[in-house]
Amino acid sequence: MTSMSSAAGEADEPRRPLTAAAVPPGERGATRIADRVVAKIAGRAAREALGELPADAARPYATVVVHHSLARIRMHLELDYPCDIGARCRAVRHRVVERVVALVGMEVSEVAVQVERLHPAQAQGVAQGRTR
Description:
By secondary structure, the chain is α+β, with helices and mostly antiparallel strands. The chain has helices at about 1-10, 35-50, 85-105, and strands spanning about 60-65, 70-80, 105-120. The protein has a 3-stranded mixed β-sheet, with helices on one face. Helix 2 (about 35-50) packs across helix 3 (about 85-105). The radius of gyration is 28 Å and the shape is rod-shaped.
């Protein structure tokens, strides 16, 4: 008879909703980071890596494809010339991967850098045109 009374007592208690602490983290839901958010982070990281740009250069921007927790990034840059283009592109790749991993926690499978335009450096005090 005791077993029946305890079962009846449990049935009379109201059910409490599960709290976040009672549900394991993997079952609570998911976070999705939009492609455009990763693109903004990548563009900002590229600006950090490049430092000062020529006055008439467009800001670096990125196009991103995110699949689950893996990002593929294409950077579009304008650089001053002459410069070590390869070294500047490596610096951009490194900084973009570093910032995306740190801020979003997403793996980066590829950072393709596309140099859209080169801006010739204007030598100060040197006459333009042909000299003898």
